[in-house]
Amino acid sequence: MAVNSISRFEKGTFVVSLMLLSFVYGFAARWHGWFPNALLERASEQLTGLYVAWTPGPVARAGRVYDRSGVRTPDASATQPGLTLLQSSWNGEDGWTPGVRLVDQGGRVVHDWTLDQETLFPNPPDGKGGVSARRSLHGSHLFPNGDLLVNLQYIGTVRVDACGEVLWRAPIGGHHSIERAADGSFWVPGMSPGLRSATKRLPDGLPGLETPLYLDRVVHLAADGTVLDSIDILDVLYANDLERYLSKASQPRAGTDDPETTDLTHMNDVEPLPPSMAADYPLFEAGDLLVSLRDLDLVFVFDPASLDVKWHASAPLIQQHDPDFIGNGRIGIFDNNEDFTARGTMLGGSRIVVLQPHTDSTVVRFPTSRSEPLYTDIRGKWQALDNGNMLLTEGQTGRVVEVAPDGRTVWEWVHPPYSADNTVAVQQGERYDLTAADVASWPCSSAAPTP
Known about the structure:
With 451 residues, this protein is an alpha+beta fold. It contains five helices and 29 strands.
């Protein structure tokens, strides 16, 4: 009996020792790149690609936060009239597909664009076939006649009519936002093809970088989709001694086909200063561009002709989105305020921060003591409405909420859940000054005026 006990003890000790040695070697192999690290990385990339290409359902899913869906209207009398554009994925006869919908204040769908990704870009410029077909829609602009400009994320920008027919496409790697200039042209964040590390000012690539790089660029599109200009964002940073902010970015872009490719900047918005507002901004001129670089916690305004950065700010922003010129010399920003908790409990949730560059002042416009909790660690949009309200897109939770100037909720829409535990992200919510009667005149419209 004693011999058998010793034998079992020795065997157990041997097994535990092997497990410990395997763990230590695995850690060292990952750290130093020893065998079989390269093989495991390639297998992981292949599995990631297969998951993105073949997993059913919408591309962007997250844990469910709200136990309700549809419209809730605490104060209908305080809402901004109009129709709300919602960009997300929707469950229909063919399963979950990306699309854009216009809903009225009661949540009724007035018009929708179901956009087949293979039709938008039959031959994706990155050549990844099925993986590219899983890209989400991200960024839009609605025209009065029902035409819609959308980004197929990191693939390109497309204009479709009210029936969803493609009018033109620009394979610029468009993503996140589409902003119209006063002359009818558009500014769009783009992605350089081929994951090149070289730019005009850095022909030999980024100093010290040994991995492939996603190169964000600012793209200027004519109304017909012709590329008018393309500016590598790294060139802007290096031309203005702002490359020090690159030290903040050390993580690869989450959810991409190649997790080993470095995402240094993650540009998520570019917006021109309109001539009608330029007098309010003594530091800037009409046509200057306002840019947000999420992974650098950085926003700045620069002249696209000279690349001269006229103003920049980082504190107090954390992973921000969607800076807007809002008049009176002010810039409003959706500050995600990421704190790595489930619901932003450490730092108080996502915020709307208003900066005034020429006075160097900062005001937090949302939340207030009357606000309901709101937090999205990634994604996020906001819109200043004509009546003083704000429309906030709590992207990761699938929620769009209209709040009054005092911060209280007056209208809310929550995406129907994907499952009991998961919801579908909303990329964008935007209020348009439209009625059902306006939409009824569009081609392919089944809308009818609200009684």
